[in-house]
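Tokenised fold entry reproduced for absentees:

. . .
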Amino acid sequence: MDIEGLVPESKTSLELVVQVYNINHGYNKEILQKSETLNSYSLLIDKIREHQKTGLTLAKSIETAVKYCVEKNVLKDFLKAHGSEVVNMLFDNYDFDTYIAVVREDGREEGIEIGTARGREEGIEIGTVRGHEKGREEERKDFVNVLKSGKSLDEIVKMYES
């Protein structure tokens, strides 16, 4: 048993809420300014992406970006000491980034589909409400015309009772 014998160990759970920040180059500058390492990592990733946009392979883009950072004294000591580990981690990270991008795109498409369906439903509901409002307006006009017709109140009541 766990938690003073109240909950079996297999039933113990933990909920964790994590705040996530975008540290890509150009985002959350205040955070990046507080951490030179984070800012440098952001620059390294930005350089890899820049090189990929020019048509270089992922491997060549990583290699070129690492060389650039070493030349510019960005993460220089760390990259010299752990260069191969960084390259391996970046390959893994890019696979993960690709996965995340695909998941986000799927979610975006699903959100659009749900939003479109809800929009249609709300449009139908609004149309129905407007239809009821038009019907009520017609009934009101009819009732006013009956009142203007000169009929007695008893005759009018009998008309609307049936």
Observations:
- The helical segments are 29-34, 36-53, 58-71, 76-148, 153-161.
- The CA atoms of residues 23 and 100 lie 15 Å apart.
- The two ends are 72 Å apart (CA to CA).
- The mean pLDDT is 75.
